[in-house]
Amino acid sequence: MIPILFVVSILIFFFTHLIPGDPARLVAGKDASLEEVNIIRAELGLDKPILEQYITYMSNLFQGDLGTSLKTGLPVMDMFVDRFMPSIYLTLFSMVWALIFGLLIGTFSAVFKNKWPDYLGMVTAVSGISLPGFWLGLILIQIFSVQLGWFPTGGAEGWKSYVLPSITLGAGIMSMLARFTRSSLLETLKADYIRTGRAKGLKETVVIPKHALRNSLIPVVTIAGLQFGFLLGGSVVVETVFSFPGMGRLLIDSISFRDYPVIQAELLLFSIEFILVNLFVDILYSFLNPKIRYVA
Amino acid sequence: MEVSREVSNSSIVIKENKYSPTKEFWNNWKRQKTAFWASIFILLLIIIAIIGPYITPYDPYEPNYNETLQGPSKEHFAGTDEYGRDIFSRLLVGARISLSVSFLSVLLGAIAGTILGLLSGYFGGWLDRLIMRSSDVMFAFPDLLLAIAIVAILGPGLTNVVIAVSVFSIPSFARLVRGSTLEGKETVFVEAAKSMGASHFRIMFKHIFPESLGSLIVFISMRIGTAILAASSLSFLGLGASPETPDWGAMLSLGRDYLGTSSHVVMMPGIAIFLTVLAFNLVGDGLRDVLDPKTKNE
Amino acid sequence: MEMLLQVEGLETEFKKEKQKIKILHGVNFHINKGEVLGLVGESGSGKSLTSLSIMKLFKGTTGEISGGNITFNGRDLTNKSESEMRKIRGKQIAMIFQEPMTSLNPVMKIGEQLMEPIRLHLGYKENQAKEHAISILQKVGIPRAEEIIYEFPHQLSGGMRQRIMIAMAISCKPQLLIADEPTTALDVTIQAQILDLMKQLQKRENMSMLLITHDLGVVAEMCDRVVVMYAGKVVEEADVFDLFESPRHPYTKGLIGSIPKLGQKRDKLDSIKGNVPDPSNLPKGCKFAPRCNDAMPICFEEEPPVMTLEKNRSCRCWLYKEERGDILV
């Protein structure tokens, strides 16, 4: 994993510096004179040769120093701390409810194929993937925050402030999982071993969960795991609508500002998260699928 | 061909039913009731997109400070916004923007992705590894984040939105086409073509590519929905269309402040986006049931 | 001999896009206690569907019984509810299928799958069930039974998997074992082993067996009596020796005649011309007539009834119009 991260850090560094635009200018302001910009550039260490900048960056990294934001002057680490945990919680809550409802709806839709639970479930699911997230968020805020006052309109203080954002964020994922679970289960139900189970006299309420779902959920779980990896990168839309202090908004703002240290640090963090999640999903998959676990 | 024989007094009459793929498709399509109506809706939208600006009841750009923030009424089907502009007219013009942006970006992404996928699957080796690794890296980022990053670098505006959305579509298309190329490579008729000395490109485009057409069409139709959502999200965030243009996402963003008092400013464009994306998704589902042989179930 | 199962006038149909297609058009046969009945026919004759109908195993399909009776131990199965059938499946009537490679759940341990019917029907608790499972595995000739129960299906060969299927089927001492082409998907040598095993078990447990196959060699080896099916109906019924020695129905003759014989020098194999008819488009009269070398005009007009020829011998063919009746030899 270390060599990958090494390569990734190089890529991130050079990619970030390739973005057109001059952070020194942005810090100095539109009206600053050329001299002022140059002074600031020197202050920020941006006038040194690129290779030297890279070495400084890497050595700082190994000491645990993520650098200082060009925009705010604060250590990047501090900026992260405020946002990292809220993003993690948001991701967690969104995934949990998306998984629960997605799997339930998908399962019932498959079991009652072409009857009303199926239609209801799939109409919900296809609507869920067609809804603009920002629209859903705004509507939820209007109804549940402003009019009913049950939840705050934004921020990340207390568990209540996570409810609406996670519903918004989870809606799309839940719908996708519902559709995928349905097709996976329908496919599994065609298998011979399901017929064997029924021929043994087992009830449907045993056949479906014990025999069918155990097989059909394997691919679903891996997809859900990947989604989890994505969400860790934050969701700009949800964070904007709910004024949520998350990692997504931070990344976009720092890209706009060409705030190199923040961009680099966040991309690095994201890469690590993603690699870890993929690793975890691989392990999970091999655990769930005995064909991989025990190589014959 | 169905042949039924009737033995009559002096002659044998043979009836033939002509088979045509378009006719079969149309018959199957009519059976997909939801998708069928959704496709009618889309046809309607396309017509609106083309003639929209000419049939608007009001000027979509001209402010009218006497009639700001009015709710839906006989004169203004969808009400007016904070500048007094008729929302319905703006929605009509916005259809053109939404459809053209999404069609264009998905088309570009599909073309680029298809070429990459064909090359990658057909030639294999280092080219395949390079293309797949790059697309893996792109896959690692959530769709929108990638698009936003691209727009943040290139600057706001609809052209850059098209570029951003097409770029983030490329890996999925590449992967899809690569998959069917790998399958198609092993088929007998490709072997036959090779033995007849067909060039690589001829094999790729004339023999292998048509096999993936079915899943490609399904995928394109689903991606259009995604593209519309992405483009409107970008506009909502202020990274896409300028606030003046009647882009649905931008309209929503502007109306945000009036959500409590004049919710129609937010609801109308939202409904427009929702219904459009829904229609494309339903059509995609229907197309998949009809076209994609792999997912045909009883 | 005591009768265990009697199928009378069984009709089964499928629903396909609002249309009902009848596949079984009145199947009649019976199985006595302790005997092996062979059910022979080409693909499409309805033999598999007959076995599914006996078990009423229609879930996941659009099939249903539309007529007739299935009397098992004196009671009509066609009237029984799904929950009543569940008590019978795996316990009194058990079934093994053709494809051992896909008939076992890939993500469940062998032991777990084996113990399911044991716990369900016999009410054994965990340890008792496990012991029972091990003893059954040993009975079907699986080595290292105590280890196998913790393994997964993909770790075993096709022959082993079919033995496990058999073990699962006999675990609750069923009175009737239905085997649908149990050896078709196996290598020839393994086939012989499995058939031997089944024969042994059948004799030992005094189990009745309905053996469905298209392979007449298997019939000759395993069966006491044979029933031949064509286009959803029974066309001939006989003791196994009689069937091979003097087949009556032209279809049976064709089947037996098409078996290549060792030592015979032939240029071409005999085969039955034509194809099995489409169930939704059956010809008038005898369904086999279009392919029959001995067809007479009446065969195209009227369907022949079942004609009892001798004891345990019947045939559905106009050729035996003179012979029919109550001639009991």
How would you characterize this protein structure?
- The complex is a heterotrimer of chains A (296), B (298) and C (329).
- Chain A contains 14 helices and no strands.
- Chain A has 296 residues and is an all-alpha fold.
- The model of chain A has no long low-confidence stretch (mean pLDDT 85).
- Chain B contains ten helices and two strands.
- In chain B, helix 2 packs across helix 10 (264-291) and helix 8 (200-236) runs antiparallel to helix 10 (264-291).
- Chain C contains eleven helices and twelve strands.
- In chain C, helix 3 crosses helix 4 and helix 6 packs parallel to helix 7 (188-205).
- Chain C has an eight-stranded mixed β-sheet, with helices on both faces. In chain C, strands 2-1-4-5 form a four-stranded antiparallel β-sheet, covered by helices on one side.
- The chains are: A mainly alpha (296), B mainly alpha (298), C alpha/beta (329).
- Chains in contact: A-B, A-C.
- Chain A binds chain B through residues 19-21, 126-127, 129-135, 138-139, 141-142, 146, 183, 186-187, 190, 229-231, 233-237, 240, 248, 251-252, 255-256, 270-271, 274, and chain B through 140-142, 144-145, 148-149, 152-153, 225, 229, 232-233, 236-237, 249, 252-253, 256, 259-260, 263, 266, 270, 273-274, 277-278, 281-282, 285, 295, 297.
